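Journal club prep — side note

Before the paper discussion, L.F. wants everyone to see what a predicted structure for a comparable chain looks like in token form. Sequence:
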Amino acid sequence: MDIEWLRRFGAAQEDTGQGVRLVCFPHAGGAVSAYVPLSRVLSPVVDVVAVQYPGRQDRYRETPVESVTRLAELVADALEPEEGRPYAFFGHSMGALVAYETARRLAARSAPGPLRLFLSGRGAPGLRPEAADRMTCDADVIAAIRRLGGTGVRVLDDPDVMEMAMPALRADYRAIGSYGWEPGPPLDCPFTVLVGDADPVVPVARAAEWSGFTSADTDVRVFPGGHFYLDGCTEEIGDVVTAALGVRV
């Protein structure tokens, strides 16, 4: 596992080599810290690691990646799934797309695949970019952040933090604003799709369309809240994850 890309939290810094590994993919502008609460709920029974994209936190000096598929290729290179070690992916918003595309690339390499994909806060892919993802300037990006809400809105009131955050945000919105699904075979692992009932950009019906991208079962879970419903439902999400993976915390 490449520690430049994949991080653990707190007391779970050391890998015991046992249990299911849950690889978590952050949202646009997000970093590994977004998954600290979920890690606290699931550790140590689930080995929670999160992907640190270039251009944020301790990787802020690196150039952010402006392509979902290129980012997926880099993550697939970093993962190196271990034969016999079960793992799953959890991706929120942009992270759902990166998780899905990473799984596709691992399948193309005949690498061991994930037990399940947890796809959160994102509608199923389309052949063309979503209209809501196309940003023409920084003002559009900032307006999108305000619309989506969540704890990330707080950075808008701090000019110094915003100056550091904007390069990653610009790159991430360019990535999702240019992403179009390339036709190919469905994955063969089950999906759990998670969405907030008041998400302003992801209707439940659009999220449910992920079922067309796997030959296995799809389970759709709807939670109270908006795009960042996760902030108030961490315990419930933990229950969904452990039940789907067949483990007990």
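L.F.'s comment for the group: The chain has a mean pLDDT of 90. Keep this in mind when we get to the figures.
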